[in-house]
Amino acid sequence: MSRDKIVETLIKKGNKLFGLPYEKVKFTGNEEADTLLNDINQFPHAYVLACVMDGQIKAERAWLIPFYISQELGGFDFDKLLKLDLNSLKEIFKKKSLHRFNDTMAENFHSAIQLIHTKYNNNASNIWKDNPKSATVVCRFLEFKGVGVKKSTMAANILAREFKIPMQDRICIDISPDVHVKRVFARLGFISKDASNDELIYCARELHPEYPGIFDFSAWEIGREWCRPNNPDCKNCYLNQFCPKNI
Ligand code: SF4
């Protein structure tokens, strides 16, 4: 019963967020970089390239990479990117120390530009145009070098949740195995403390198959605001009365 109540509350919260109008997403905390990443009409490739860069360093730093490259190139028009050869890109990555794995990420960046060019006719928004199925969007992100399931579902989730991109369904938008989300799911009794990312993903699928990623924001917010690693503030957490508190 408590479990049902928790699920219901989290879904309600997630739906509320989903229904809110678009607001500029603070990906990096850098105003100019966030403006570029949010402009998915003029620079849809900036968002896609940032998703490709995400991983193995702090997200805020990874998402800054398109902006730093735009500074280097004097703009971020796709034509400019297309003219970049791999060696020049590697130089930029190294010179500006953009990533922990500069060579690999420069290769992934370059390869993503080529894929947007050949498959999407230089327009990355073709990845999500015409009300696609969520599985289609996830599959398309998976085709980018260096992008696995986690990044693909995150990319599809942000498109649906933050940018309000219409999709036929949300079945394939999984929960992101974030550290806050995992801790909250464990304390709520949904998964064990040492559960794998896959267990978390399948747990969310079981709880809400229509849109497993619905739990992302609410669980993340609870983890950050109240259910902190040490001394969780259960008194003020809105799940207090139902939570088994598996701490
Ligand atoms: S009630 Fe306490 S343990 Fe449960 S989710 Fe909230 S803060 Fe975490």
From TrEMBL:
Highest taxon of the lineage: Archaea
Keyword DNA damage assigned: yes
A Gene Ontology BP annotation from the UniProt entry: nucleotide-excision repair
Stretches assigned to coiled coil: none
GO molecular function: DNA-(apurinic or apyrimidinic site) endonuclease activity; lyase activity; oxidized pyrimidine nucleobase lesion DNA N-glycosylase activity
Family annotation (InterPro entries): DNA_glycosylase, HhH_base_excis_C
SUPFAM superfamilies assigned to the protein according to its UniProt record, in alphabetical order: DNA-glycosylase
UniProt keyword list: DNA damage, DNA repair, Glycosidase, Hydrolase, Lyase
PANTHER family for the chain: ENDONUCLEASE III-LIKE PROTEIN 1
Protein name listed in UniProt: Iron-sulfur cluster loop
Protein source organism: Candidatus Argoarchaeum ethanivorans
